[in-house]
Amino acid sequence: MNKFLRQLFTLILVILIFSSLSFAGRRPPKWVKNRPVSSEYYIGISVVKKGVENYMQLAKNKALQDLASQISIKISSNSVLHQFEDNTGFKEEFESQVKTSLVQELEGYELVASWNNKRGKEYWEYYRLSKKQYALLQRLKLNKAKKLAQSYFEEAKEYESKLDIVQALSYYSKSIVALKEHLDQDLSVMTFEGSVNLGTEIYKRIQDIYSNTKFVPVNKYIKVEISTSVKDPFLVKANWVSGEGEKELVNLPLTFDFITGGGILNKHVNTDEFGYASSQLTRVTSKQKLQKVEAALDLSSILKQDDKDYELLRMFLTPDLVPKCSIILNIERLKAYMLFSEKIFGEDSRRSILKNAIKKELSENFFSFTEDKDSANVILDVKTNVTKGEIKEGRNYKVHIVYLDCFFSLTDVKSGFEIFNDAIYEVKGMKPVSYDYAVREAYEQAVEEIHIRIIPKLNQLDL
């Protein structure tokens, strides 16, 4: 009997223990009910529904995001970000990127516990990261970044001393990229010249390069005839101006571009052995009287919009401040002398309606007409011929139709060669009452045809 009682007691005890364990498994741990607070650790806790795909990985990611949110970003008083205090957008973007990269680059964290809430179908995870260990890892990363950046910085100074401006800017840019995750920190390093803050010193040296690089156009004001090539190229002298005097900048890339107006020219050129950059203007295409071409330091090999670090480099390289100079173009239209003959229904006409309309159209787009044949660059010979067409009659209408042909010939005065020959045919005029009204409409249609078909061809001429 005693043996039976002992066995029964043992069985009851086992049942009670398993029941207690089962109940304890359903009871949430303390860290779920009350979030732990620690001065030694960053803490991250997350909960996800177990029905979600890869719920355990999702719980880990969320816990690490929670942990990373505990790490505050403190901008050092010696930070280069203070250099850009006017650009709050850049600082906000930087802080956002740092917070994003924190989760991706976290190291040294540990899983403290997890909990399956079977009743609520939830899964919980609890991670922590030692604040001391994190600070140590950050110091190691910062020192590694500063070491790499300093090596690029020293190379940049070497290129700068040799007046290889683009290579210097390129290596200063590499130094910036090496430091991109630490711009909120003190970036001071020891050099032969003493302690130097890499961030602010790089920015200062780039600005010094810009201020020491001077571009001077050989001819600041140039007269150009529209739609003609310019015999002499645009010349810009590039010098390095410092306390030691002036030196030519050789093989320096420049960009030439129209700031106002428009035309076809060599956009990307390098200075020659004497420091001159030469850009050939093929043709001016804009009708503006005064136009401006700007020659500027070409940063396209360093600053590329599809580069992931473009916005960062743009802050340091400040493309709006690059060395530049302007060339002003005074546009003169070709002087033209006009010969005009007109036949209407087989007889010579002395009307000036079409002649004046053609003159006005060509003046607005191409020529400056002169009454002095000897001063003209070109002679424009225009012949028009209007013929009668049929009369269409209906029950309540009667329409007169005419057809106009117009022939153009352009001769270069200097060479005597015909350089342009074209025509528009059978421009129709239709009006009731009389043929005279139809002729007037044919004139109007002819001017539109000239604008559409003749003017573009004249603009393509290279005289």
What does this structure look like?
The protein folds into five domains: 1-30; 31-134, no CATH class; 138-210, Methane Monooxygenase Hydroxylase, Chain G, domain 1; 218-332, Sandwich (Immunoglobulin-like), CATH 2.60.40; 334-459, 2-Layer Sandwich (Double Stranded RNA Binding Domain). Strands 17, 18, 19, 20, 21 and 22 form a six-stranded mixed β-sheet that branches. A five-stranded mixed β-sheet has the order 7-16-15-10-12, with no helix packed on it. A hairpin with a 2-residue loop joins β17 and β18 (347-348). The protein is α+β, with helices and mostly antiparallel strands and 463 residues long. The longest helix has 31 residues, at 131-161. 36% of the residues lie in helices and 34% in strands. The protein contains ten helices and 22 strands. α5 (131-161) packs antiparallel against α6 (165-178).
